[in-house]
Amino acid sequence: VAAGCYAKDLDFPAGFKFGAATASYQVEGAWNVSDKGVNIWDKFVHDNPSVIKDLSNGDVACDSYHNWERDIEMAAELGLDYYRLSLSWARILPTGLPNKISEDGVKYYNNLIDGLVAKGIDCMVTIYHWDLPLPLQELGGWTNPLIADWFEDYARVVYTLFGDRVKLWLTINEPIVVCDATYNSGVTAPGYLSPDLGAYICNKHVLLAHAKAWRLYDKEFRSKFNGRVSLANHLLWIEAASDKYEDLAELARQNAVGRYSHPIFSKEGGWPPGIEEAIAKACIEKGYPKSNFPSFTLEEIELVRGTYDYYGMNHYTSRLIRDALPGENLTVWPFGDCPDLHGKMETAENWSESVVYWFYLNPEGIRKQMAWLKQQYGDLEIMITENGMPTYAGLNDTTRIDFYKSYLEQVLLSIKEDGVNVTHYTAWTLMDNFEWGDGYTTKFGLYEVDFEDPKRTRTPRESAYYYASIIKNHSLDVPANYTDITLS
Ligand code: PNW
């Protein structure tokens, strides 16, 4: 990939689709209405308010549970081809299991999905975006092998309920956060630390859960509904800090991306090359009698291999990696370094900072990431399931406009120069929402939300006009008067 390359032809291919995303816990609120069950984020923030920067929580959030008509209106006026939303497991199944299905929970999603479909907007639905029902967590959550069956049973319920109208499914959002970030850092729900063990066990179980849900769709629903299913992986692009670290960088990519992709998307299946050996070595060094990293049986390898209809990619930022110096302090993945590989993460001088500590802007990273996916897993269809940038409050978000322009330009280069089959682009996010540990302090929204206002009024930012114009023109070549589009 040539550095500093700029696209000449700014039109998107015919059929390329644009969307925007949200997630249940981040927008819905209504945490205890009707018979909704408690989930791990409800409990995590109520028990530990200080883990969230502004001591806030998602109890009300954007109150999308009550404002769903406004959410549809925003999706429609932006001209979105599709809206990516997630389902709250405990809102649909209060106990986590299908012994009881909440009528009100189902009604909320039916209203939303029907309203979108009526406006000609497709639905991309994430089945799990981090809000596990509490009763399942109390039995170990993603470290209990039964989670694969619990997830499959939940998936059956939602395919049955919504599959007639939902044609794009994502089983699990960012398993690397569900596993690595959660068990290594304790800063995401359930806030339970289990370094060197929890993340590894979880890694295997999310793959089995995804695979069972994909196979269920393939066997029982595909012929009837003709939809497509994948998962959304979080891909941090990692490059060598200098030539001598090329091997380390490749191993770090296999650790960050491969552990959640290779078993599903590679031809041979199973764990990515070098990873079992590297983690075994790290475990022995840390004094464990043997590797804590689980192996796959041949049957499990076959169960997981090939369980995709496209590649779902969330991408935000990049890092450089080098060998750690002796005694150097290493923080944990995915927000920190790569201790299992003795790797220290850095950022390049020319990557500008955002208002969030982990986020540095490197537009070329998204193109290099997709080229790497193609080289590793062949000519897959890639859907960008999240991409966006944080700012502080304010409607004149020029930096966000520059972000979308520069990242989308690299997407065009991927398509036109690298021959990558990327077909969908999803902006994170439709509106400001509960940004996990950052609470409401940082804003990713195309629409600003007034969290002081009981009505949670939404107002379009300048970037909303810009994005609407890209969609309308099907091109990055937008007219100078793009704010003339009417948004409410
Ligand atoms: C994603 N990292 O999380 C999530 O899917 C969204 O729910 C979230 O609001 C959004 O990005 C913005 O933060 C991330 O390791 C997970 O760099 C991990 C990272 C970044 C974002």
What structural class should be given to the helix and strand makeup? alpha/beta
What is the average per-residue confidence, as pLDDT, rounded to a whole number?
Answer: 97
Query: Radius of gyration, rounded?
Result: 21 Å
Bound ions, cofactors and other small molecules, one mention each: 4-nitrophenyl beta-D-glucopyranoside
Question: Shape, please?
Answer: globular
Low-confidence spans: none
Quantity of strands, as a count: 13
Number of H/I helices? 15
Helix proportion: 25-40%
Q: What is the distance, rounded to the nearest whole angstrom, between the alpha carbons of the first and last residues?
A: 41 Å
Classify the beta-strand content into a percent band: 15-25%
How are strands sequenced across the largest beta sheet? 1-2-3-4-5-6-10-11
Task: Please tell me about this protein's structure.
The structure is a single chain. The protein has helices at 24-27, 40-47, 68-78, 89-92, 103-118, 134-137, 147-162, 175-185, 198-225, 246-265, 275-285, 298-304, 363-377, 398-416, 462-473, and strands spanning 17-21, 82-86, 122-128, 168-173, 228-240, 311-323, 343-346, 352-353, 360-361, 381-387, 421-428, 447-449, 458-460. The chain is of the alpha/beta class and 488 residues long. Strand 12 and strand 13 (458-460) form a beta hairpin. Helix 8 (175-185) packs antiparallel against helix 9, helix 13 packs parallel to helix 14 and helix 14 (398-416) packs parallel to helix 15. The relative contact order is 0.14. The protein binds 4-nitrophenyl beta-D-glucopyranoside (PNW). Residues 23, 26, 173-174, 177, 234, 236, 314, 316-317, 334-335, 358, 386, 428, 435, 444 line the site of 4-nitrophenyl beta-D-glucopyranoside.
